[in-house]
Amino acid sequence: MQLTELSGSRFEIGQQHARLHRRAIIASINVYDRLFHDMAGLRWHEARRDAQRFLPMIEQRFPEIIEEMDGMAQGIGGELSDILTLNCRSEISLTRASGGCSALALLNQGHQWLAQNWDWRAEQTGHLVALRIQPPEAPTLLSIGEAGMVGKVGLNEHGIGVALNAIRSATCGEGLPIHIALRRILECRTFDEAEGIANDGICAPAHFLLADGSGQALGCEVHPGNPGRILPREGLITHTNHLVSDAATHWVEDFPKPDSWSRLSRLDTLCAALSNGEEAPLAAEQLFDLLGDHEEGQESLCRHFNPDVPAEEQMETLFSVVMDLSQRTLWLRHGKPCQVKESVCLRP
């Protein structure tokens, strides 16, 4: 994953994204065409029709991103509905998919760290992008994610960072689609503004782990209503793929895989060991070692192909990120952190 620089008007940013990653965007559309069919019995033209219902919500709360998606659509020779569908893939049917991802926020000696593994279908490995985006009248941001999507995990020049955990649930209502909301958060200038995006309603359940360079952190179990809030305990927040806050579980029913609990327990254990007796400041390498964990008898944080798991449930770690928000720095490993030993260092 080489860093792609995008700047100019919203429309020009979308056009540049499409020009530089056209093949990967079209490949992503083909991947989700198959997944929509396998999971929900929808073909692409049917998914495009379903995606139209999210357009008024985006027009109301983040209208400028539509111009960027339109530039991307024209750049690949498609229509706005193609890029809209790609960016609403979680809401259309993939709430039925088994979740992945293990995330943490950790305050250590004045440095706010944010890190996660992103677990998904291996067929998307070659369609991932690292973007540095300079939107008009908004902070410069880094977003690591899938080609054709306007945002996922990353940070911006003000030290606002966000990580993501998928939540499997049948709930879908009013609000911003998950990936549109993630991009909106990455365009915020303050932590309070970022938290406000999560508080204003997200179409489908997910966990947004927010943090900033001053040491603030908050887990937001978002859904169409008021999100569940997870506060740091001794500077630490961890999350996998099940809801834990009373505020979220009261309104939303989730259907996590059993490994979500065992991964969370393992994540807590490793973070506690990392914090105990640590005199020297943390280094990114230590957090990558944690994300690359394979423990005998445990569901490991680093996930590989498992021949005993049905094809529709297969999840693998496709990339890992470690961010020092206090230093406005992101390190990226494309692939499994237990195998990839060199990190790409990026700054917004």
From TrEMBL:
Transmembrane segments: none annotated. Residues 109-337 form the Peptidase C45 hydrolase domain. GO terms for molecular function: acyltransferase activity. Pfam families: AAT. The keyword Transferase applies. InterPro entries: C45_proenzyme-like (IPR047794), Peptidase_C45 (IPR047801), Peptidase_C45_hydrolase (IPR005079). Keywords: Acyltransferase, Transferase. PANTHER family: BETA-ALANYL-DOPAMINE_CARCININE HYDROLASE, PEPTIDASE C45. This is Acyl-CoA--6-aminopenicillanic acid acyl-transferase. The lineage of its organism: Bacteria, Pseudomonadati, Pseudomonadota, Gammaproteobacteria, Oceanospirillales.
